[in-house]
Amino acid sequence: MDNSSRRIRFKTKDNVVLESSVAAMTKSPTVRDYLINTGGEPDSGEIYLENISARAMRIIIKWCEEHIDYPCIENSDDPMGKPTPTEFDRELLKVGNDLLHELLCACVFLELYGLMDQGSRCVSSQMRGLDVKQMRRFLGIPSDSESEDENEPGPSNGRRR
């Protein structure tokens, strides 16, 4: 049986089982290496992804299946290997910031640099035009005054003056 008709199953951290073609999921060097090391079949019939949610994995599977005929980007630092986003990519990544963050973390784990690049572009376009205070809020970074308040001695942080 060739890779285009073979199927692979993933069990996500929220115990949802999702399925995709082996050909699509070997876009991920992590999955490809796992299959090579296990002789092509996961021991339990499915690959357990303890750090990836079902909602992020659904997006990853759709992206891999859509880009099955595109060459893999093996190196995140190769600017020549980064494809221009398609309309499919833009629509697929119209998600909330929490899911986009989950997706980017999953892409790092699965080494899906093409999707990671597309997600990073979404984040950068959302941040375009923001001032420093707005960027800190967007990224969840405490402001300098908040971190200074935490370091000040006083009753609010359990230290005495």
The strand line-up of the biggest sheet is 2-1-3
CATH superfamily assignment?
Potassium Channel Kv1.1, Chain A
Number of strands: 3
* Count, helices: 8
Span between N and C termini?
A: 73 Å
| Structural classification | mainly alpha
Query: What's the alpha carbon Rg, rounded to whole Å?
Result: 20 Å
The CATH level-2 architecture is identified as: 2-Layer Sandwich
Shape: globular
Which fold name corresponds to the CATH topology?
Answer: Potassium Channel Kv1.1, Chain A
Main β-sheet description: 3 strands, mixed
Pfam families: Skp1 (PF01466), Skp1_POZ (PF03931)
Domain SKP1 component POZ: 8-67
Region (Disordered): 139-161
Keywords: Ubl conjugation pathway
Characterise this structure.
Keywords: Ubl conjugation pathway. It holds the Pfam family Skp1. Residues 8-67 form the SKP1 component POZ domain. The chain has 161 residues and is mainly α. It has eight helices and three strands; from the N terminus they run E-E-H-H-E-H-H-H-H-H-H. The chain has helices at residues 22-25, 29-37, 54-66, 87-92, 97-110, 113-127, 132-139, 144-151, and strands at residues 7-12, 17-21, 47-49. It has a three-stranded mixed β-sheet. Helix 3 (54-66) packs across helix 5 and helix 5 (97-110) runs antiparallel to helix 6. The mean pLDDT is 81.
